[in-house]
Specification:
The chain is mostly helical and 207 residues long. It has helices at 7-22, 24-33, 41-60, 66-78, 80-87, 91-127, 132-164, 169-196.
């Protein structure tokens, strides 16, 4: 089945995918530092094989993320020296590299979704279908969920390598992109349910 995403989703996913793929060497350092002991070797091989095959299937199917995945692979290979140098300093340096990349990806995701929401909100306020207060809330929610979803995708790619070892950059891109899409859909659904009153916090009396 062809993967269909909106332009804003594709841009957010491309950010997470590129960030996740760029962390391959740093995550491999964590794998060597102890991540290899978490899962049995047979499970690691099975997971890597499944991920690679699924990524190949998605890339073969084309879609809006295909070119971005290929570009991510070239970016990673072309600029891997700096990341590899950081990763070779040890697990602590690799961890800092992952945290910095996660933060940068989250900030970029917030800008993408916040900007998209701003365009929508301005049009709705002008048409009278949304108040200025609701517009501010909408922009803040979209920026927040965009940031969280992009961070989730980046971490998912890094975690995959940390627990299973080497995975190709295009496959990591697809893992991060798909995780970001799924996280954004889940967060959007939560926000809608909360706004509709389907989710309420209930205070339990102290016993």
């Amino acid at each position: 089945m062809r993967l269909r995403v909106k332009q804003v989703d594709a841009l957010r996913s491309a950010i997470a995918g590129t960030a996740g793929a760029s962390l391959r060497d740093a995550a491999e350092a964590l794998f060597e530092a102890g991540g290899r002991k978490v899962l049995p070797a047979a499970v690691q091989r099975a997971v890597r094989s499944t991920i690679e095959q699924e990524a190949s299937r998605l890339l073969a199917g084309g879609g809006v993320l295909q070119k971005s995945a290929s570009a991510a692979g070239r970016i990673v290979e072309g600029g891997a020296g700096a990341v590899r140098a950081t990763a070779l300093q040890g697990a602590r340096a690799a961890g800092r590299q992952i945290l910095r990349s996660m933060g940068a990806a989250a900030a970029a995701g917030a800008l993408v979704d916040g900007g998209w929401a701003t365009v929508q909100a301005v049009a709705r306020v002008r048409s009278g279908s949304m108040s200025q207060r609701d517009a501010v809330v909408h922009i803040a929610q979209e920026a927040g969920t965009g940031a969280a979803a992009t961070a989730v995708g980046t971490v998912a790619a890094a975690l995959l390598v940390t627990l299973t070892g080497g995975v190709g950059a295009p496959a990591l891109f697809m893992v991060a992109a798909a995780s970001t899409l799924g996280a954004k859909m889940g967060l959007d659904a939560f926000v809608r349910m909360r706004a509709a009153g389907a989710i309420r916090a209930v205070l339990q009396p102290a016993r």
